[in-house]
TrEMBL record:
<comment type="similarity">
    <text>Belongs to the SHMT family.</text>
</comment>
<keyword id="KW-0554">One-carbon metabolism</keyword>
<keyword id="KW-0663">Pyridoxal phosphate</keyword>
<dbReference type="GO" id="GO:0019264">
    <property type="term" value="P:glycine biosynthetic process from serine"/>
</dbReference>
<dbReference type="InterPro" id="IPR019798">
    <property type="entry name" value="Ser_HO-MeTrfase_PLP_BS"/>
</dbReference>
<comment type="function">
    <text>Interconversion of serine and glycine.</text>
</comment>
<keyword id="KW-0808">Transferase</keyword>
<dbReference type="Pfam" id="PF00464">
    <property type="entry name" value="SHMT"/>
</dbReference>
<dbReference type="GO" id="GO:0008168">
    <property type="term" value="F:methyltransferase activity"/>
</dbReference>
<feature type="domain" description="Serine hydroxymethyltransferase-like">
    <location>
        <begin position="17"/>
        <end position="404"/>
    </location>
</feature>
<dbReference type="GO" id="GO:0032259">
    <property type="term" value="P:methylation"/>
</dbReference>
<dbReference type="GO" id="GO:0004372">
    <property type="term" value="F:glycine hydroxymethyltransferase activity"/>
</dbReference>
<dbReference type="GO" id="GO:0005739">
    <property type="term" value="C:mitochondrion"/>
</dbReference>
<dbReference type="InterPro" id="IPR039429">
    <property type="entry name" value="SHMT-like_dom"/>
</dbReference>
<dbReference type="GO" id="GO:0035999">
    <property type="term" value="P:tetrahydrofolate interconversion"/>
</dbReference>
<feature type="modified residue" description="N6-(pyridoxal phosphate)lysine">
    <location>
        <position position="248"/>
    </location>
</feature>
<protein>
    <recommendedName>
        <fullName>Serine hydroxymethyltransferase</fullName>
        <ecNumber>2.1.2.1</ecNumber>
    </recommendedName>
</protein>
Length: 466
């Protein structure tokens, strides 16, 4: 016999979203249409699975579970303990790690907090760190600061000295890094980035870290799906710690993971766990941990390797087509899921192309390219193939997407030659340009011919009326 639903102040707790809050429901529907009808090329994004979203939107959001499985500060965690242990096991399995050598904390709320918790675990305030500089494709949380301001907490609480890519080749200047490490004497060397289109030489980095007695950490946020599928080099072979987000190529919900070696330092496990909670975070987001567990199960499946291989094939197909047109790509191509496109030879800026792509319903982001004089006007854009690959696109589809991008460039050059370089004038002209309107229509027709992960029936997706 089922229990009757209340008809009092608790009534709202049983109403579906569309009834309880049509305003939010409408926004979700509009966003679903946006994702379905556009081309998502943001390299840090992906489209997660229906099962992950179900777990992430589940009743697990209700439970507090500060602490670790078997050692919680609250009662009632018998199932949450099972969940977190399952997630840990799956994380180690997805990356083919021996549980005697590696442990994992699955509680970080995001990649940034995973990184800061790692620093908290193994560094003292004002210890020295070296990460790939932001203009070279690194990430904010690896110590970014400008001449005027310490931007990231990782540069406020630690002394940071970036390494760079070689300005000619775009490849990491491992030699320069080694020399500077010898002078700067970092306690932690960080690998990984957000806009680096090539694989990493972990053996070389380990040599540098070892020469200084420094920890080696790899932040594989962008490439973790590719690492799990073994289509990129394996950082676990050389690193003390590996952090990642779970929502980029790994294709899970938005969160982070910290993997740590247990065999070299008996205290490492305790240091990492204590840094996540209570030092940096509070209660774990158990609904998210359930979503991560689901995504990690998928990542251990042979089909995931096919997906990861297709990402790289798609990147190469896109790079090939743009290269053929004579455009300048950082490092002349890509080994992973992303391409960094240097627009400076075309006398266009990343901001203009980002905005004009938005008008055409192609989503990408402006990005600094090595050698940019001002961070305010990035000279390039970053293209990622994760989301398009999850929608089922293959090499020939990448050629079509490249053709759309080539149209964007041609229209941008035409507008710029008419109205000059000022962004406001450029945008005003772009908004009423017939070529952009036609491109928008062509993009929409193409994009809506592919399924949208998580939505079983695309005919249920409604175009917003406004
Ligand atoms: C390399 C790298 N690390 C960390 C992060 C931060 O992740 P989050 O946005 O989940 O905090 C990102 C995000 O793009 C990233 O690219």
């Amino acid at each position: 016999m089922s229990v009757a639903l209340p008809n009092d102040y608790n009534k709202v707790l049983y109403q579906p979203l569309a009834e309880a809050d049509p305003e939010v429901q409408q926004i979700i529907e509009n966003e679903t249409w946006r994702q379905f009808s556009g081309l998502e090329l943001i390299a840090s994004e992906n489209l997660t699975s229906l099962a992950t979203m179900e777990a992430n939107g589940s009743i697990l959001t209700n439970k507090y579970s500060e602490g670790l499985p078997g050692a919680r500060y609250y009662g009632g965690n018998e199932y949450i303990d099972q969940l977190e242990r399952l997630c840990q096991e799956r994380a180690l399995k997805a990356f083919d790690l021996d549980p005697k050598i590696w442990g994992v904390n699955v509680q970080p709320y995001s990649g940034s907090t995973a990184n800061f918790a790692t620093f908290t675990a193994i560094l003292n305030p004002q210890d020295r760190i070296m990460g790939l500089g932001l203009p070279s494709g690194g990430h904010l949380t690896h110590g970014f600061y400008t001449a005027k301001k310490k931007i990231s907490a990782s540069s406020i609480y630690f002394q940071s000295f970036p390494y760079q890519v070689d300005l000619k080749t775009g490849i990491i200047d491992y030699e320069g890094l080694h020399k500077n490490a010898d002078l700067f004497k970092p306690r932690l060397l960080i690998t990984g980035g957000s806009a680096y289109p090539r694989d990493w030489d972990y053996a070389r980095l380990a040599e540098t870290a070892k020469s200084q007695g420094a920890y080696l950490m790899s932040d594989i946020a962008h490439i973790s799906g590719l690492v799990a599928a073994k289509v990129q080099s394996n950082p676990f072979e050389y690193c003390d710690i590996v952090t990642t987000t779970t929502h980029k190529t790994l294709r899970g919900p938005r969160a982070g993971l910290i993997f740590y070696r247990k065999d070299k330092d008996a205290e490492m496990e305790g240091k990492i766990n204590a840094a996540v909670f209570p030092a940096c975070q509070g209660g774990p987001h158990n609904n998210t941990i359930a979503g991560i567990a689901v995504a990690l199960k998928q990542a251990a499946d042979p089909a995931f390797k096919e997906y990861a291989t297709q990402i790289i094939n798609n990147s190469r197909a896109m790079a090939e087509k743009l290269h053929e047109k004579g455009y300048k790509l950082q490092t002349d191509g890509s080994d992973n899921h992303l391409i960094l496109w240097d627009l400076r030879p075309l006398a266009l800026t990343g901001s203009k192309i980002e905005k004009i792509c938005d008008l055409a319903h192609i989503t990408l982001n402006k990005n600094a390219v090595p050698g940019d004089l001002s961070a305010m006007t990035p000279g390039g854009v970053r293209l990622g193939m994760g989301a398009l690959t999850s929608r089922g696109m293959k090499e020939s589809d990448m050629h079509k997407v490249a053709e759309f991008l080539i149209r964007v460039i041609d229209i941008s050059l035409e507008i710029q030659s008419k109205v000059g370089k000022k962004l406001v004038d450029f945008l005003k002209a772009a908004e009423s340009h017939e070529g952009i309107k036609q491109l928008h229509a062509d993009v929409e027709k193409f994009a809506t011919s592919f399924p949208l992960p998580g939505v079983r029936d695309t005919s249920s997706i409604k175009k917003p009326s406004a």
